Amino acid sequence: VQPNNYSTFYDDQRQNWSIMFESEKTAIDFSKQVCIAKCNSFPVLDSVLYQDLLLGEGQGAEGGDSLEIAYTGWLFQNNGLGQVFDSNVNKDKLLRLKLGSGKVIKGWEEGMMGMKKGGRRYLIIPPAWAYGAQGVAGRVPPDSTLVFEVEVRRVKLVKECSSSDGQSVSSRDSPAPSPVPNSDGFSAD
What domains sit in the chain, N to C, each tagged with a CATH number? Predict the structure, then answer.
């Protein structure tokens, strides 16, 4: 995925192709279908597949960084999207998570690495990286492959150092940090 509704990819002959789409929505829909096609090309999916839909800006998230996320989760059924089993998109609360803390499924920990503020990503997560043989009663059947569309709304980077005047400065944040600290610890931008 590239800025201005472009996508680039390599074919099986390692030739590079670029496609320009007429709208952001069309580029995103195409990228989702590419990810589903990749999933369907594997006899058994044994790792997380992800496809960036929008790249976002700033430094990519790493282990220990905190994110606020809007997401929707579907069951992967009949080689495509099944029913929605969870979403916070139309709710007031974003999901807060700290990468590497083990508080979310392993597939999210893996699939969210490198995401940037404003980035959107499509994740296809096999059962072993999700809820496994137990599933989630009433929502996720046992041994389910899951699909998530996730959007990072806020990022708090963990790596900080002190500058010479004693103020805390993020070594991986934007060059102009917000002058007003937020009580929740997330930067105002």
Answer: 45-156 (3.10.50.40)
